Amino acid sequence: MGPEYSDAVLDSFLEKLEYRFEERLGQSIPRKRVQAKPLSERTRAVLSGMALGGGAVGIPLSILGHDYTATYHPVVADLWTLILVGSIISSVAGLAKVRRRRD
Fold first, then answer.
1. What is the pTM of this model?
2. Residue 62 pLDDT exceeds 60
3. I need a labelling partner for 59 at 20 to 30 A (CA). Which of 40, 87, 92, 94 fits?
4. Distance in angstroms (rounded) separating the CA atoms of residues 80 and 66
């Protein structure tokens, strides 16, 4: 058998398998969309506080990590710069949520 023939056999097998899989799922499991529950105010406040606190702690730690590794490991220092940017984004997002909730 050549490579063209084995690809055709594999495609045919996968089509049959997909057809039978859809056939069984359609009969045994009714398809319905599950709605996610909205988050409570307390949960939103906790998530905002975690984003703000995690960013606030991450900023000085990533600056220290960058300064420590900058002279010996410049690639690792670049990683610390990315962590710093992520921490700043997290802090700004948490602060924005807290301010929006107060208004």
1. 0.58
2. yes
3. 40
4. 5
Q: DSSP letter at 29?
A: S
How far apart are the C-alpha atoms of 60 and 65, rounded to whole Å? Answer: 9
Cα separation of 78 and 50, whole Å? 25
Task: Identify the pLDDT of residue 31.
Answer: 53
Cβ–Cβ < 8 Å for 57, 94? no
Hey, CA dihedral for 21, 24, 26, 32, is it positive or negative?
Answer: negative
Is the separation of the CB atoms in 94 and 53 below 8 Å? yes
Tokens encoding 62: 């990533």
Amino acid at 94: G
